[in-house]
Amino acid sequence: MAEISIDGFVKQKVQAVQDFTLLFANSFANVFSSPRYIVDTIVQMDVIGVGSLPIVLLVGFFSGGVIALQTYRTLSTFGSVTLLGQVVSLSVVLEMGPVLTALVTAGRNSSGIASEIGSMIVSEQVDAMRALGTDPVRKLVTPRLFATIITLPLLTILADLFGMLGGFFVSFYTVRLSSVEYWTTAYQALTFRDVTQGLLKPFLFAFIVALVGCYFGLATRGGTGGVGRSTTQAVVVASVLILIVDFFFTKFLIAVGFF
Question: What Å distances lie between residue 17 and 12, 14, 21, 156, 239, CA to CA?
């Protein structure tokens, strides 16, 4: 019995990976054929992008402030407080901005997407779409995917800016570092490679945020209780995948000599 249960568990996980891959391929391929549901994409850009803006900016600002506070203790030991802007800018642009923005967006939107589509599954709205000849993947998944791909990099840029602003407020009012010293070191520390890496990650994270939510939403079973389970699973899986992809993508960039 144990062998059967383990075998069934492995088959279930392999099937899940296969279904997720097919969902990714189909949703991405839909952009090359009509109908494209551009209005739905714009609506989702408002829901996913504009709706996430306040919490993303808030998290970015205070994350930059915390980095400045913690870094100041170390830099002051070596008498290098003037490098505070450099440390904050590199930390925010390379890691904290993209990763925290993706995690916050996943917590808000992966769960929202999963609950919305899951509710449509249990109320048989998706079955009605199929009966009317509408492809649920094209109608529900593709607009959310491309809305996330467009808005998440923009959210990351704003989070980076507010993160550096948070570091500036701490350095100016707490450390008494002049604004010229902070912004000069912050600007000079960033290279084209740093900015490119910080802007490549959100595109990868966007696929995770959107597709994980859509996958668990479409896989919802068991009525309203299933909607709750799908919502929880979407947030957990999306958050873990973001951290895993961040690690391996950074390792890949180091291996190919991007740094």
Answer: 9, 5, 6, 28, 17
